[in-house]
Each structure stands twice: as structure tokens, then as C-alpha cells.
Amino acid sequence: MDATNYSPLGDGGIVYNTTIKIDPQIEKEWLDWQMSVHIPEVMATGLFSNYKLFRLLDQDDTTGITYVIQYFSSSIGHYKKYLDEFASSLNEKAFAKWSDQFISFHTVMEIVN
């Protein structure tokens, strides 16, 4: 990476990354729900321009299957607005539906290149 092209100001965009390990017994229903309900609700906030859904490979799936959803935003401000206004209620829906059948954690990344 050429250090002269790097800017810590976020002009490359932001990726909101959610990693989820789910109980194998709910995989199909959970995936259907993600695609038909949860992801469309997140995208309907208008704060993300795109998303990608991944299933991690080469993982020990005996304790759960791991998925990653990445939401792309043009600014840290949009990400912070999502956290302030939408994240809690959308996450509560997931916990109400799936309870202890999943664990998740979230990270945010700046797109550098």
C-alpha cells in the first residue's frame, strides 16, 4: 500500500461487519429469514449502499455454522446513525426469534483501498 494514498478520514467508505455463529439445526430457516426479513430491513434504513453475505469455510461446524454479513456505507456518519436509530430494534428482533441459537459480534472497518 502506498502510504501517500491512505486517508484516515473515511473517504474510502465503511464496512459494518457482523459475524454470526448459528446452531446447525436452524441454518435453512435462519438463512431464509436473513434474506427475506433482516437484511432487507437493514438496507431499508437507506444508510448502506450494498451488502455481501458469506459462509465461512474450513471451520469446525460442530459447534455452529459461521456466517458473515458485510454492509457497505459511504460514511462513518451513516454507520453511527444506524447504530443510534436502528441497530437495537433490529437486533432485538433477531434475539426474539432465535434466542440462544446464535451468537454474534460486530466490527466496523474503513475501506482503505
Strand portion, in percent?
A: 25-35%
Let me know the average pLDDT. Answer: 89
The biggest sheet, with number of strands, parallel, antiparallel or mixed sense and barrel status, is: 4 strands, antiparallel
Helix proportion range: 25-40%
Which secondary-structure class do the elements indicate? alpha+beta
* Count of alpha/pi helices: 2
Number of strands: 4
Any idea what the radius of gyration is? 15 Å
Spatial order of strands in the largest sheet: 2-3-1-4
First-to-last CA distance: 8 Å
What are the secondary-structure elements, in order, as H or E?
EHEEHE
| Low-confidence runs of at least 5 consecutive residues | 1-7
State the shape.
globular
List keywords for this structure.
4-stranded antiparallel sheet; globular; alpha+beta; disordered N terminus; 36% helix; 113 residues; single chain
Layout of helices and strands:
Layout: E1 14-22, H1 27-44, E2 50-55, E3 65-73, H2 76-98, E4 102-110
Antiparallel strand pairs: 1-3, 1-4, 2-3
Helix pairs in contact: 1-2
